[in-house]
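[Structure tokenization] protein backbone as discrete codes
[Encoding] learned vocabulary of local backbone shapes
[Protein] chain in single-letter code, fold in tokens
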Amino acid sequence: ALKEFRALEHRLEYVATIDGIAFYNDSKATNPDSTIKALSSFPDQKIVLIAGGKDKGTDLKEMVEAIQD
């Protein structure tokens, strides 16, 4: 079953490696909790997070702390 498993689109979906840098699409991470979980999937790695969207008044404190870590 693991050999045939295909990850879901837009959920930590591997896109490509360019010049030694791996790119992932996690556009389904539309809230702080899912973004934190996605970031924790890459322990001890340097990450460049590209994030944006409409401000819905969500408390971003925990996400900011996770990004700083």
Q: What stands out?
A: The first helix runs from residue 32 to 39. Strands lie at 13-18, 21-25. The CA atoms of residues 19 and 48 lie 15 Å apart.
